[in-house]
Amino acid sequence: MSEIKDHLAENTGGGRLTPAPEAEQAASPPAAAAEPAQAPPAPPEPPLKYYEIIYGVLFDPVPTMRRLAANPPLGAAFVIVILLALAGMLASLYIYARSGAPELGGALGLPWQQHPAAARALRAAAPVLALLGAVFYFVKWFFYSALLHLLAEFYGGRGRARTVFVIYGLAGLPEVFLIPLNVLTALAAPAQAALLNTLGNLVTLVWGTVLLTIGLREAHRISTGRALAVIVTPVLAVLALALVTLVALAGTLSALLPATW
């Protein structure tokens, strides 16, 4: 009997059952799940072509300004703005060569007999005036975009000066519609040219302000209200300075005038 018991103990491992390999595998904790493979980064969007920039800024400004803010095309902006300035300069020269602005003498208060002389003088000075206007536009482009960039940072923006420079230059694209308007009104309706051109300038001013607001918002990642405040702040500062100057001049003149007046 003792031999039989010893034989059973050897087969059962001393009274303990040995689990099967399948049971051990089932009882073991599951291995940690493998982390999912990260997706490769999306490739950068290709740069916008010239016609895409012009059409997008004018008629689809929000996504276009967002792409321009991400990758500002400085060279393309220079080419577009230079072409726009040259077109405006040539249109002005054509208008002065055809019409000569005969109302210039009346605007200057000259006698009626001297009106033709004033028109001839304007024709002669037209190339210089057009060139000076183009130079002034580029100087204003550089300094005003720098001012807008500083003001945007003051309002909490986090953009780049280069981006604001490109955005400000392309926000003037609505002025392209003023070129045919000025030519047509000068040739077909010179009597109503001043009124029609004023309305056209007002429309392009509002349009350009909207484009610049969208561009500053995307470039500096600020709200629309803050972007509009960036644009309005210099205007309000100039108006306030002019008002203070007028009040100071009025006070000085009133102190110099005799009391009997």
UniProtKB/TrEMBL annotation:
Residues 19-37 have a biased composition (Low complexity). Keywords: Membrane, Transmembrane, Transmembrane helix. Residues 56-244 form the Yip1 domain. The chain crosses the membrane at residues 74-97, 117-143, 164-188, 194-216, 228-257. InterPro entries: Yip1_dom. It is found in: Membrane. Residues 1-42 are annotated as: Disordered. GO terms for cellular component: membrane. The keyword Membrane applies. This is Yip1 domain-containing protein. It comes from Desulforamulus hydrothermalis Lam5 = DSM 18033.
